[in-house]
C-alpha cells in the first residue's frame, strides 16, 4: 500500500505533530488499523472510531472519519449507542489497558456477552501512559510502576481470556513488532460479525519500559520479537510458558445482537398490526 | 381517556416526541419507564437496550444522541449519581439527550420506594465544572407526558441534555388523562453547509441551528476535552473562555422561553412556592384556606427548575409579604427563593424529608 492512501485517512492539517512520545507503539497500532480499514474496502465515511481517555484513546483525533473521544472507560457503551443508531457504520473502538480493563472492565465483559458487532483494539502497554506510568490491570506481578515503586503486588488480567470467557466471537493478539500480522488480525476482526477483540502488545519506552529497565523502543520491540509464539506453532502448552501467544486465539459463530433485535422489531410490528 | 401512571405517561410522551432509543438500568421508582419503552419501542422500529449499569446507559444514550437519534434514559438517585460524568460530557460535546430522574429519598440507597425532592441541587451541580443545565419538574400525569415532549424539544434546540425531575409520587400515581393525539415536534433546521465549510461548534450554532451527527459524512470529532470550533482539543485560554461562554449562552439567551412557571393570585400577601408532587398539596392548601377564610393565597409553581430565572421570579414575588416554600428536602429550593426575596418578605419553609408527602394540613398550619 502506498503512503498517500494512508493519508486519505489521516487528519493531516493542523492535527500533526501528534502527542505521542518518541518510540511509542501506539502509532504502529494506528498504522495497522488504518491499513486494515483500507484493505477491508472501507471508506472514511463508512467508519466511526471510538475511544475513551488515555494515550491510545487519542488515536481517533487523527483519523479522518466520524470520531468519538468519550469518557475514560466508556468507549464501548458510547460505541454501542452509535452502532445501534447506525448499524451500517463499521464501529471500531480503540482503548488502553486501564481504559478497557479497569474503569471500563464491566462494559468490556458485557459487550462481549451481548455480542453487538464492533471491533475493539486494545493497546496493552502494561501501564497507564497518559497519567504517567501507574500500574494497570495488565501490569505483571513484580513489575515496577509509579504506583508500584516496590513492585506490583497484584496479578494481571489476560484480556483475551476474559473476552473469550465473556462471549466474544473473535479474539486475537499480536504486537507492535508484528505489524503485518497485526493488520491481518484487525482485518479479520472488522470482517467478523459480532464482538471482536484484538489485543496489541505495545511498548511504552518512556514509562513502563524505563521503570522496568527494558531499554529503548527498539530493545522492547526486540523483546516482543524474541518472546512471542504463534498459537499455531504450539504443540505442547509448555512451549508457551513465559511467552506472548499471538494469532487468532478464538473464532466462533454466535447470533449478533442487532440481528437478533431486528427480529424482535419484526415480531413486535407484526403483533401490533394484529391488534 | 386513559388511566395512566406518571411513569407510563413519561414513556408515552417520549415515544410521541420521537424518542427511538432508550438505554437504561432498572431502579425503583423509575423502572416502569424502561418497561414501557422495552415493550413499545420495537413496535415503532426503535431500540431499547438494558445496559450493565447507569454509566453505560447514559453513554449509550449519548452515542445514539450524537448519531442523530432522539435518545433517553430513566433512573433514580443512585443511578443519577452514576450518570453525572456522562451528563457533563453531553453538555461539553453538545449532544441532545433526555435523562429522567424519578426522585426517591437519599443519600446513597436511601429510600427506594419513598418520595423525595432532594435531587434539585444534584440536577444543577451533580456534574463537575461550570455548566448550564435544564431541568423540568412535572406535577401530574398529564404534565409528565407534556414535559417529556418539551424536554425533547428543548434538548434538540439547545444541543444539550435535559433532565426531567419527576418524583416517586408523580411517577407512581395514576390519573385519568386524555393524551393529545398529535404533538408538534421540533427538528433542527437542515444542514446546508458542505463538509469543508462545516464546523461542529461554529459561532452561532449553540442553539436553534443545524448540526451534524455521526453517519452523515461530516467526519465530526466529539470530545469531552475543551475544544475549538472544529471540535479538536485546545489549551488556548481565549478559546477555553469562548467555549464555556458558548455553553452558558444557551441559557442566558433563551431564559424567557425556557422558564416555565404556573401561578395564581400573586397579588396576595402570602404566596406558596412549590413544584412537583409537593405543589399538589400546596394547591390543595390554598383552596382549603380560601374556603375557610374567604381570603386569597398566592400560588407559584416552578415547572422549570433549572435554569432559575431570578429577575422573573423576583418580579412575580414582589408583592408578597410572606413566601412559603413547600418542598420535600431540607430546603434546596428555599435557598434559591431566598435570593429573590430581597425586600422584607418573610420566608417560611415547609419541608419534609422522611419519605412522606407533605400534607395540605401541614401547609395550612403556617398559612
Ligand atoms: C474518571 C477518570 N478517572 C481518571 C482519569 C485519569 N486518566 C486519564 S488516562 C488514564 C489511564 C490511561 O491508561 P490506559 O487506559 O492504559 O491508556 P494509555 O494512556 O496507557 O494508552 C487515567 C487514569 C480520567 N480521565 N477520568
CATH architecture of chain A: 3-Layer(aba) Sandwich
Tally of discrete structural domains of chain B: 2
The total strand number of chain A stands at: 10
- Which consecutive residue ranges of chain A, at least 5 long each, have pLDDT under 50? none
Q: Figure out the total of helices of chain B.
A: 14
CATH topology of chain A: Rossmann fold
What share of residues of chain A is helical? 25-40%
Tell me which ligands are bound: thiamine diphosphate
User: What gyration radius of chain A follows from the Cα positions, in whole Å?
Assistant: 19 Å
Share of residues in helices of chain B: 25-40%
Largest interface: A-B, 42 and 41 residues
| Number of structural units classed as domains of chain A | 1
Question: Measured on Cα atoms, how large is the radius of gyration of chain B?
Answer: 21 Å
Mind telling me the CATH class of chain A?
Alpha Beta
Shape of chain A: globular
Binned strand content of chain B: 15-25%
- CATH homologous superfamily caption of chain A: Thiamin diphosphate (ThDP)-binding fold, Pyr/PP domains
Percent strand of chain A: 15-25%
Largest sheet of chain A: 8 strands, mixed
Strand order of the largest sheet of chain A: 2-1-3-4-8-7-10-9
Amino acid at each position: 500500500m502506498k503512503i498517500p492512501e494512508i493519508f486519505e485517512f489521516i487528519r493531516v492539517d493542523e492535527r500533526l505533530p501528534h502527542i505521542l512520545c518518541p518510540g511509542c507503539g501506539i502509532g504502529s497500532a494506528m498504522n495497522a488499523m488504518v491499513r486494515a480499514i483500507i484493505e477491508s474496502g472501507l471508506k472514511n465515511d463508512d467508519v466511526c472510531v471510538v475511544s475513551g481517555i488515555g494515550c491510545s484513546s487519542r488515536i481517533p483525533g487523527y483519523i479522518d472519519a466520524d470520531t468519538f473521544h468519550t469518557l475514560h472507560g466508556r468507549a464501548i457503551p458510547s460505541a454501542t449507542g452509535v452502532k445501534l443508531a447506525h448499524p451500517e457504520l463499521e464501529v471500531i473502538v480503540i482503548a488502553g489497558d486501564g481504559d478497557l480493563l479497569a474503569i471500563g472492565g464491566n462494559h468490556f465483559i458485557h459487550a462481549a456477552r451481548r455480542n453487538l458487532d464492533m471491533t475493539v483494539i486494545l493497546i496493552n502497554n502494561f501501564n497507564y501512559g497518559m497519567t504517567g506510568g501507574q500500574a494497570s490491570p495488565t501490569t505483571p506481578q513484580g513489575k515496577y510502576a509509579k504506583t508500584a515503586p516496590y513492585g506490583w503486588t497484584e496479578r494481571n488480567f489476560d484480556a483475551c481470556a476474559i473476552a473469550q470467557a465473556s462471549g466474544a466471537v473473535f479474539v486475537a493478539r499480536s504486537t507492535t513488532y508484528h505489524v503485518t500480522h497485526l493488520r491481518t488480525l484487525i482485518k479479520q476482526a472488522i470482517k467478523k460479525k459480532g464482538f471482536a477483540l484484538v489485543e496489541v502488545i505495545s511498548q511504552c519506552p518512556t514509562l513502563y519500559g524505563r521503570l522496568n529497565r527494558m531499554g529503548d523502543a527498539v530493545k522492547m520491540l526486540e523483546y516482543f520479537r524474541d518472546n512471542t509464539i504463534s498459537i499455531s506453532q504450539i504443540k505442547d502448552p509448555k512451549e508457551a510458558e513465559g511467552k506472548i501467544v499471538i494469532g487468532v486465539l478464538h473464532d466462533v459463530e454466535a447470533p449478533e445482537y442487532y440481528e437478533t433485535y431486528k427480529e424482535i422489531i419484526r415480531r413486535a410490528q407484526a403483533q401490533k398490526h394484529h391488534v | 381517556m386513559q388511566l395512566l401512571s406518571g411513569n407510563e405517561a413519561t414513556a408515552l410522551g417520549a415515544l410521541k416526541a420521537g424518542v427511538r432509543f432508550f438505554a437504561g438500568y432498572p431502579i425503583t421508582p423509575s423502572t416502569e419507564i424502561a418497561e414501557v419503552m422495552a415493550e413499545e419501542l420495537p413496535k415503532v422500529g426503535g431500540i431499547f437496550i438494558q445496559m450493565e449499569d447507569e454509566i453505560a446507559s447514559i453513554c449509550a444514550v449519548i452515542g445514539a444522541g450524537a448519531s442523530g437519534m432522539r435518545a433517553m434514559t430513566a433512573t433514580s438517585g443512585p443511578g443519577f449519581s452514576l450518570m453525572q460524568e456522562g451528563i457533563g460530557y453531553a453538555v461539553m460535546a453538545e449532544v441532545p439527550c433526555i435523562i429522567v430522574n424519578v426522585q426517591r429519598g437519599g443519600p446513597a440507597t436511601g429510600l427506594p420506594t419513598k418520595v423525595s425532592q432532594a435531587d434539585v441541587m444534584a440536577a444543577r451541580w451533580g456534574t463537575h465544572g461550570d455548566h448550564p443545565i435544564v431541568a423540568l419538574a412535572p406535577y401530574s400525569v398529564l404534565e409528565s407526558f407534556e414535559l417529556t415532549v418539551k424536554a425533547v424539544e428543548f434538548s434538540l434546540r439547545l444541543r444539550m441534555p435535559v433532565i426531567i425531575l419527576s418524583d416517586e409520587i408523580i411517577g407512581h400515581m395514576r390519573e385519568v388523562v386524555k393524551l393529545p393525539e398529535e404533538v408538534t415536534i421540533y427538528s433542527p433546521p437542515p444542514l446546508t453547509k458542505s463538509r469543508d465549510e462545516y464546523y461542529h461548534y461554529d459561532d452561532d450554532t449553540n442553539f436553534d441551528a443545524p448540526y451534524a451527527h455521526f453517519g452523515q459524512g461530516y467526519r465530526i470529532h466529539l470530545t469531552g476535552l475543551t475544544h475549538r470550533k472544529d471540535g479538536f482539543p485546545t489549551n488556548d485560554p481565549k478559546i477555553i473562555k469562548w467555549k464555556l461562554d458558548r455553553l452558558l449562552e444557551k441559557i442566558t439567551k433563551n431564559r424567557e422561553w425556557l422558564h416555565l412557571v404556573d401561578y395564581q393570585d400573586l397579588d396576595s400577601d402570602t404566596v406558596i412556592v412549590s413544584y412537583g408532587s409537593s405543589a399538589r398539596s400546596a394547591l390543595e392548601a390554598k383552596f382549603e384556606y380560601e374556603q375557610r377564610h374567604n381570603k386569597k393565597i398566592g400560588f407559584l409553581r416552578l415547572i422549570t427548575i433549572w435554569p432559575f430565572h431570578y429577575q422573573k421570579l423576583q418580579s412575580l414575588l414582589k408583592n408578597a409579604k410572606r413566601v412559603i416554600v413547600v418542598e420535600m428536602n431540607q430546603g434546596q429550593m428555599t435557598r434559591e427563593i431566598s435570593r429573590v426575596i430581597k425586600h422584607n418578605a418573610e420566608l417560611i419553609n415547609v419541608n419534609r424529608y422522611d419519605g412522606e408527602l407533605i400534607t395540605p394540613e401541614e401547609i395550612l398550619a403556617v398559612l
